[in-house]
């Protein structure tokens, strides 16, 4: 098992946890905290502490995911880089024949200024 596979598994787990934490929250201030009675801050355990926990866990999981993604980029095995099939076909095709360079033509019939006298 490569290190990239381990990072990929960790990214999937963190993404699942992040989805769960975000889905538990309610954008209007309800969510999990309102399901415990929704009264004031007089409850045991405190509703405010629940929302603070969900907020902090969201930011923590998002930060962990960002770090895992950046570190997994380093762990990618680049020794056997796979190119696209189109590039492989271009590299394996025979090169087009190139016309041979023509030598410079010399005119033996033309007179030079010294020969004209």
Automatic annotation (TrEMBL):
The way this protein sits in the membrane is described as: Multi-pass membrane protein
Residues of the signal peptide: none
TM segments? 6-24, 58-76
For bias kind Polar residues, which ranges apply?
Answer: 106-117
The molecular function terms in GO held by this entry are: protein-transporting ATPase activity
Tell me which family the UniProt entry assigns to this protein.
Answer: Belongs to the SecG family.
Q: What is this protein called?
A: Protein-export membrane protein SecG
Q: Which organism is it from?
A: Bizionia argentinensis JUB59
Please name the taxonomic classification of the source: Bacteria, Pseudomonadati, Bacteroidota, Flavobacteriia, Flavobacteriales
């Amino acid at each position: 098992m490569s290190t990239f596979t381990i990072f990929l598994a960790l990214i999937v787990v963190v993404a699942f946890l992040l989805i769960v934490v975000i889905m538990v929250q309610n954008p209007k201030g309800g969510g999990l905290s309102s399901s415990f009675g929704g009264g004031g801050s007089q409850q045991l355990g405190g509703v405010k502490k629940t929302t603070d926990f969900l907020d902090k866990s969201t930011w923590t999981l998002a930060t962990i995911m960002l770090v895992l993604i950046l570190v997994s980029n380093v762990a990618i095995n680049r020794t056997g880089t796979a190119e696209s099939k189109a590039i492989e076909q271009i590299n394996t095709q025979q090169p087009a024949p190139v016309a041979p360079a023509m030598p410079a033509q010399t005119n033996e019939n033309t007179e030079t200024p010294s020969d004209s006298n």
